[in-house]
Design a protein that fits this description.
- 16% of the residues lie in helices and 33% in strands.
- By secondary structure, it is an alpha+beta fold.
- The protein has a 5-stranded mixed beta sheet. The chain has a 5-stranded mixed beta sheet with strand order 2-5-6-4-3.
- Strand 5 and strand 6 form a beta hairpin.
- It is globular, with a radius of gyration of 16 Å.
- The relative contact order is 0.26.
């Protein structure tokens, strides 16, 4: 059985951050509701003070943004074509801008409901026990039917991601 990692973003004061600029889509992102998005490019004006370095991965308010390099790695090099990808241009007040992509993983039934530890009141998985019959060929996803924000990454893809030395990417064992 495969091991899984939680993909999350490094909190570093030197990194560019998205604060409230994408609040209008956070609920759709949380639930992976792709049907509420259009494919049109979106420009996001960054407000307030942010760092000066552009990380390869940002994950604020359950809105996953990947750099062009990370998107190409996922989609073109590893065939992760089941994400919803939407081009975003992030623009600082200085005029500097970079291309990022909203990269929404699908929410799929993936964990063994009887073997995982679940807080039923909070509708949250406390301890994951993934069921290979449920997650199938998906290598990166969010769990359906719970409110967990973890992005699960299968160990083989996690190792490939680690080998790329992406900035801002943290992969920790998913427990």
């Amino acid at each position: 059985m495969a091991d899984f990692f939680n993909l999350t973003a490094e909190k570093n004061e030197n990194y560019i951050r998205i604060t409230n600029e994408l609040d209008d889509i956070k609920d759709f992102c949380r639930d992976s509701e792709f049907q509420f998005f259009t494919r049109e490019e979106r420009t996001v004006e960054l407000e307030g003070t942010t760092g000066n370095e552009w990380p390869d991965f940002m994950y604020e308010k359950e809105i996953p943004l990947v750099s062009k390099r990370f998107k190409e790695f996922l989609l073109e090099e590893n065939g992760v074509d089941y994400f919803y990808y939407k081009k975003m241009i992030l623009k600082k007040s200085t005029g500097e801008e970079k291309e990022y992509w909203l990269a929404l993983p699908p929410r799929i039934e993936s964990f063994h409901t009887r073997r995982s530890e679940i807080d039923k009141e909070a509708n949250r998985v406390i301890h994951f026990f993934m069921n290979p019959r449920k997650y199938g060929y998906f290598e990166i996803f969010k769990c359906a039917d719970v409110v967990n924000e973890e992005i699960a990454v299968i160990d083989s893809l996690a190792e490939k991601i680690k080998a790329q030395d992406f900035k801002g990417v943290i992969l920790e064992p998913l427990k």
